[in-house]
Amino acid sequence: MVVEQNNLRRMGLMRLLKKEVTEYLVSILRRNRPIHEFEIWLYDNEKLLEESLGEAVYFELINLNYKSKFILDDLEPILIRIIDYRSYEEFKIRDLLTSLVYVDKDFLSSCRQIYSEYCNGYTFLRIIALKFIDFDYDLQLNDLRKYKEYIDQYRHEIIEEGKRLLAFFESSGLEIVGDYEYIDLRSIEDKIEERYWT
User: Fold this and answer.
1) Residue 183 backbone phi and psi in degrees, to 5
2) Alpha-carbon span 118 to 139, nearest angstrom
3) 3-class DSSP state for residue 174?
4) Mean pLDDT value of segment 171-184
5) Which of 28, 105, 170, 192 is deepest in the core (most CB within 10 A)?
6) Cβ–Cβ < 8 Å for 129, 104
7) At 11, is the pLDDT very low, low, confident or very high (cuts 50, 70, 90)?
């Protein structure tokens, strides 16, 4: 019984540590931390990282040249693989939708980025993009009164759409395979954005 409880505690601790490691890796992908800080973190957390990532992956990370100007090109695919995304583009879009849904202070910025991504080719973002641009043409949402009107009218609907899209990524209904290239395995009924124009 005591051994079983210790194993459960250890599994809980490992999940917590894995979550901490994942959050740190995501912060690197978001470019929220400098690369030299990441390199120091790798060496300062050797045991933790070997346990949570495995020795082979840890070895792969410490063997990168962190002084190279191309370090992000070498590092991104490894981090994407560790946190289990198909591509950096998928990470970027899922992270953007997550910010839209769960981070209040990033709502306007997330809407603007989603509009840009929609214009560049991610048509599954149509509902959020068109509701946004209807209010923000010529950056009108910089006016607090207009922003409040937009939030009051559309925030809940936009958040629900963000959650709906995230669910399709989770279920592999949507898969981003490259820059503005994606596989859409959703049913016709689920592609409600194709019937949405205003």
Assistant:
1) -105, 125
2) 17
3) strand
4) 92
5) 28
6) no
7) very low
Which DSSP letter does residue 63 get?
Answer: T
List the structure tokens of 25. Answer: 């890796």
Average pLDDT over the chain, rounded to an integer: 86
Buried b (16+ CB within 10 A) or exposed e, 132-161: beebbeeeebeeeeebeebbeebeeebbeb
C-alpha distances in Å from residue 27, one per residue of 63, 134, 196, 198: 20, 32, 34, 36
Q: What sections of 30-125 are H helices per DSSP?
A: 35-44, 46-53, 55-62, 71-82, 88-102, 107-120
| The pair of three-digit structure tokens given for residue 59, joined into one six-digit string | 């070895």
Helix (H) or strand (E) holding 26: helix 2-29
Beta bridge partners of 39: none
Q: Which residue has the tokens 């709502």?
A: 107
Q: How many residues does the chain have?
A: 198
Q: Coil, strand, or helix at residue 181?
A: strand
**Angle in degrees, 0-180, between the axes of helices 126-136 and 144-170, rounded to the nearest 10:** 170
Q: φ and ψ at 31, to 5 degrees?
A: 65, 30
Closest CA to 78 of 96, 94, 66: 66
pLDDT score at 44: 92
Residue 166 CA, chain-centre distance (Å), reads 10
Q: Which residues on adjacent β-strands are paired with residue 174?
A: 184
Helix or strand run (H / E) with residue 128: helix 126-136
The pTM of the full predicted model, rounded to 2 decimals, is 0.77
